[in-house]
User: Which sequence fits this backbone?
DNA sequence: AAATCGGGGGT
DNA sequence: ACCCCAGATTT
């Protein structure tokens, strides 16, 4: 029965697999560096978004040695817009460990991979299966959904993660574990979609209990999510001689290590700070005036509403964690999207 | 176990 | 507006 599941899936995969920049052609051994880089980028990120970033990174840093030798700031700059910037910091750190402690080659056990920065349960299993073609239980969001449907698992996620993993462990074949994982993900990205799955095109209908009972859309069951509060802030657009004052954010936490505009603290409150409040947070003592409009951005766990005020500086003052940057080069600095939206109020 | 951590694309 | 996405790490 398990063999039928993987056989039906792999037969479908051999006919319908997608061509992706990081996917080795059939018969060709995958490059662990390519697999690792793509898996980090694909964490909580869609294939369509990752493609251009993956190709740019390989062009700039064709090997793990090149990536390890690059300054962290240039890695963050090229990562800008992809989100979850801890991934970029861990990517760079991991490259250093691979080069310095592992002679530039990737470990070939899940436990050793799992101990590297930025590599968790999913990514370790994916590298073992896809890059080394060895048996590993690969479980991502797609696979959770497929398994939850096939077995009508009523336990909500994330509690259901462990039982799902055990099912995948048993279904994964020893012959083509990497293709099995990628086939599952292709299936989840196509027919077995979260809403309105196309069961008539699915290769596994006879293995799927939810299809038989017709309640596919009820799976996977998920724990309720809490609502996002709204934070508000005033950002500062300070200019001197064609240069704009930016800050380098602290190396950890939200947008860690990324450039941004100075602003009042992002505080959960019903109204914007009034002038007497935000004046206390300006980076310099100048004549400020408001800019019309408001920037809206949604992070993982809160909404941010920002208004902008502007001033002409008397000089390029030294400001702690601040640096002056040519305004015409703003598009090339690697500004996170949240700040791009704020800057757009000015441009 | 719960919270933190981005941003885009589909519906 | 809400959901989801080839999740990991910290609290």
Assistant:
């Amino acid at each position: 029965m398990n063999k039928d599941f993987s056989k039906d899936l792999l037969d479908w995969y051999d006919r319908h697999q997608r061509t992706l920049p990081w996917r080795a052609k059939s018969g060709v051994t995958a490059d662990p560096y390519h697999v690792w880089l793509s898996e980090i980028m694909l964490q909580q990120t869609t294939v369509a978004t990752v493609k251009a970033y993956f190709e740019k990174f390989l062009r700039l840093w064709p090997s793990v040695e090149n990536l390890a030798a690059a300054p962290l700031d240039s890695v963050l700059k090229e990562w800008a817009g992809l989100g979850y910037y801890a991934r970029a910091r861990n990517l760079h750190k991991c490259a250093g460990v691979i080069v310095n402690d592992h002679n530039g080659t990737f470990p070939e056990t899940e436990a050793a991979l799992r101990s590297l920065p930025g590599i968790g349960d999913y990514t370790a299993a994916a590298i073992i299966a896809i890059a080394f073609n060895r048996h590993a239980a690969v479980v991502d969001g797609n696979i959770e959904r497929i398994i939850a449907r096939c077995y009508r698992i009523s336990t909500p996620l994330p509690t259901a993660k462990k039982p799902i993993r055990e099912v995948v462990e048993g279904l994964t074949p020893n012959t083509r574990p990497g293709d099995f994982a990628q086939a599952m993900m292709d299936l989840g990205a196509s027919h077995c979609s979260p809403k309105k799955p196309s069961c008539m095109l699915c290769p596994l209908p006879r293995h799927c209990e939810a299809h038989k009972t017709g309640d596919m859309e009820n799976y996977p069951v998920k724990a309720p999510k809490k609502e996002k509060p709204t934070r508000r802030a005033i950002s500062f657009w300070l200019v001197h001689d064609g240069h704009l004052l930016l800050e380098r954010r602290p190396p950890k936490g939200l947008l860690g290590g990324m450039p941004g505009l100075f602003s009042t603290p992002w505080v959960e409150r019903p109204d914007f700070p009034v002038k007497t409040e935000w004046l206390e947070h300006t980076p310099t003592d100048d004549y400020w005036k408001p800019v019309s409009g408001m920037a809206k951005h949604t992070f993982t766990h809160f909404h941010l509403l920002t208004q902008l005020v502007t001033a002409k500086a008397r000089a390029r003052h030294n400001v702690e964690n601040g640096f002056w940057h040519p305004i015409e080069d703003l598009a090339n600095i690697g500004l996170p999207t949240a700040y791009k939206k704020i800057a757009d109020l000015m441009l």
Q: What stands out?
A: DSSP finds 14 helices and eight strands in chain A. The longest helix of chain A spans residues 86-101.
